[in-house]
Structure formats: structure tokens, C-alpha cells
Amino acid sequence: MLKLRHKILAAALLFTSPIFTVAQTAPPTPKTPAPAAATGLLDINTANPDQLKALPGIGDAYAKRIIDNRPFTSKDQLASKGIIPQKTYDGIKNLIIAKHAPSK
Fold first, then answer.
1. CA-to-CA distance for 100 and 18, rounded, in angstroms?
2. Closest by CA position to 85, among listed 52, 62, 54, 51
3. What does the domain layout of the chain look like in residue ranges?
4. What is the CATH number of domain 42-97?
5. How far is CA 59 from CA 50, 73, 83, 84, 97, in A?
6. Tens of pLDDT along 65-96?
7. What is the pLDDT of residues 47-66, one digit of tens each?
8. Torsion-angle region of residue 57: left (phi > 0), alpha (psi -120 to 50) or beta?
9. pLDDT: is 59 or 24 the higher one?
């Protein structure tokens, strides 16, 4: 009788042990990257006008120019192509990214 109790106890421990429960959990699903959300940077190729206008120095006119001149292969094209002034670019360059260049 004692051996049967040990076997039952051993089986119960096996099914409730952390090792068993970890083996039963599903593997994590791969994350699809959000448009620069993980980095906290705003993707100038996908941002909407309101998101662009939230950047310092960017209003309606600059937001429209940014959108009209997409896609950008690098964020510094905002200044090098004359989309926004260099001083404005200097104020936002650490807040933006040109993560991907979608086709028009």
C-alpha cells in the first residue's frame, strides 16, 4: 500500500511540476514589427498627418510636404531635399526614422 501511495504522489508531482507546465505552454508567437512603434520613433514613410504634426516644428504645410514627397530611403532626405529646413530637421531627427519605403 505504501508503494502505491508513493507512485500516486510521484505522478501527482510530475503533473504539477513547473517543468511539466512549461512544456505544456504554447511557444511565443512571432511578433510582427509595428511601424517603428517598438523603437518609439515615428516612421516618416507611414505616419499620418496628425502624427507628423505632433513633431516639434511640423505643422500642416510641412506634414503635407513630407507626405507628398514619400517614400524616403533615409530620414535626412527631409533636409537634403529641402522638404523642411535644416533647423527643423535638427529638432526632430532623434524622433523619426525612415524604416521602409513603400511604393507609391
1. 42
2. 62
3. 42-97
4. 1.10.150.320
5. 9, 22, 13, 11, 18
6. 999 999 999 999 999 999 999 999 999 999 99
7. 999 999 999 999 999 999 99
8. left
9. 59
The amino acid at 36: A
Q: Which three cell numbers stand for residue 25?
A: 505552454
Cα–Cα distance measured from residue 90 to residue 51, given in angstroms and rounded to the nearest whole number: 18
Query: C-alpha distances in angstroms, 91 versus 20, 22, 54, 55, 98?
Result: 53, 48, 12, 9, 16
CA 48 to chain centre: 16
* Comparison of pLDDT for 46 and 34, the residue scoring more: 46
Looking up cell 517603428, which residue turns up? 36
